Amino acid sequence: MGRKKQEEEQNNSEYGEPAQYDPTFTGPIHNRSCTDIICCVLFMLIIAGYMVVGVLAWLYGDPRHVLYPRNSTGMFCGVGQNNDKPSVMYFDIIKCATATNIMAAALQGLQCPTTQVCVKTCPSEFWILPPSAHFPGAKPADFFNQDYCVPSFQLKDTKYSAMDIGNKELCPLFYMPTTSVLGRCLPSLGGNAYNPSNFPSNFTLPGLDVNGTLAAIRNATGAGGATNDVTNSFNIKDVGLRIFEDFAKSWQWIVAGLVIAMVVSVLFLLLLRFTAPVLVWVLIIGVLAVGAFGIWYCYNEYMSLASSSLNFSNVGLTTNVQVYLQVRDTWLAFLIILCVVEAILLLALIFLRTRILIAIALIQETSKALGHMMSTLFYPIVTFVLLLVCVSYWGITALYLATSGAPVYKVVAMNTSQGDCSVIRANETCDPEMFNSTQYPTCPSARCVFINYNTEGLFQRNLFNLQIYNVFAFLWCVNFVIALGHCTLAGAFGSYYWAFSKPADIPTFPLIQSFMRALRYHVGSLAFGALILTLVQMVRIILEYLDHKFKEAQNPCTRFIMCCLKCCFWCLEKFIKFINRNAYIMIAIYGKNFCVSAKNAFSLLMRNIIRVVVLDKVTDLLLFFGKLLVVGGVGVLAFFFFSGRIQTPGTTFETAALNYYWMPIITVVFGAYLIAHGFFSVYNMGVDTLFLCFLEDLERNDGSPEKPYFMSKNLMKILNKKNKAPKTS
Q: Which family does it belong to (predicted)?
């Protein structure tokens, strides 16, 4: 026995010496000083720079460039004088299709080499200028549609012939069925819309191969018609309005479902102090029972194939999994694997039963702590609001940065076959509002079109670097907010554990006190941990970018190396999150800097590694069951209610009035998951904090009157320990 204890002490010394008794320690230290000041100053400078970047982006950026389409003169559709014309129409969509990808050109702000005008609605049918429009005395107003012509041109007052109007691109010579996608009139490729048999009899243009053009349009919009998925499968605006209408009719019941999820989550956590032992053992026995059933089933299948002559050498390699299930050796392999797993689980249950009891007791103690500090359950709301601010600021800044710089317009010949367009100088800029095509009499197709955004100037030349800075600062802020939440909750739960007489010795407003301590003393330490995590996340983002950028040029070797790098940094991120989480607990309790806290936490956990693994798995199993119970229960209830299977007498709600009854169900299920995750994250933090405090308690104290244990009586009973009564004279 003594030899075993000596070996254990020798192993423990590899991860530092156990914590020593400190007579002055009675919980989270109040007399502490600021930690990691250099990192605090650096974080403040980054935040200040982030604000400056946001201001500059707001001054130079114009999100209308992304949110609204533009016509050929550079004016926005859907705003200002074009408020009633939300979509942009391309005079000759074929030029867009044969020049570049329609969708990419439209979304990236690139101009197709054709005139574009703002319209109220996109064309929904085929039309082409009939030959009779060229007859002497024919009036253009009788053939062209004024809504699709250049706004400055009036058909009723014109003296131009139909041919002149077409050559000057004042009105389109033809148009096709299109649908508005993000404000752009793109081809409607669904069904037989572009079947040549559906074309008007006069739908021919000089030098135009109709079938070849249709193929070009289809290729430009994606294989099989990419816009078809976006446009003709459903009308986005119509569906959006219907969904909004459903939310307007059912929002009270959606809120009621979310309230039920919140109540069930809180009750589940509070009742764990009574139900945790039963739930944990039921879940463990359930896992063993599933394994036993699997063994029985595999044995049954193995015996039923006794007469089968199939084996792996006969089958070979095939993608049909059902063939392998007809091979007797397959079920033998499954049987052996399940037997080994079942044996391991049974042995673990036998030898780790005491540690499982400790895990159950800590779970019960966490439930008691929540009962005494109910405010901790609602702290995730603070974290959610702060994260929402970070995400909103990042999104708005990114949008304004992407649209920084004045738009550049250049003179472009839309049709070089018409006249002599050599008079147009290379890269000749223009003002779309002042441009007049009569300045180029030999090139009637000259137009002033948008090319790109100005990249000159110090700010514009560094837009890419500023976007990287925006992402870096955003990740740092998000990780800091999460770290602040961990440290705040850890301080509150630490105050509970180190209160000798509970609840009498629990401080007043422990959550607020812990929050103020974290902000006053440990911004630097929290920022330090968040910075390390942010750097790893930035490397992962760069790897994903490189993998996406050079995916087609990679050979199997480089793909393997890239996959290994991504996997390694994913594991590193998980490890750093684990270290940070426990470091924040030590910071909240002892007030040391990040490095010392991380070292102490890691050493403490490594000295109790088996307890760590058991507690982690038992807690994960229990919380997974809790989330399944809350989300599944509320989801089933929502399904029966919104599908009309549950009638609610005395209410005005009718399921038949909903357009899509599954939308409220999805909303309730998603909201229930977020609520359950928020509450259970607090509980998980409480378990981790109490566990570290429990390990410290075991190392610091021995149960004597001078060094009494702070753990609950249930934990002392499991460990066969007790606090000795002081000697009376």
A: Belongs to the CTL (choline transporter-like) family.
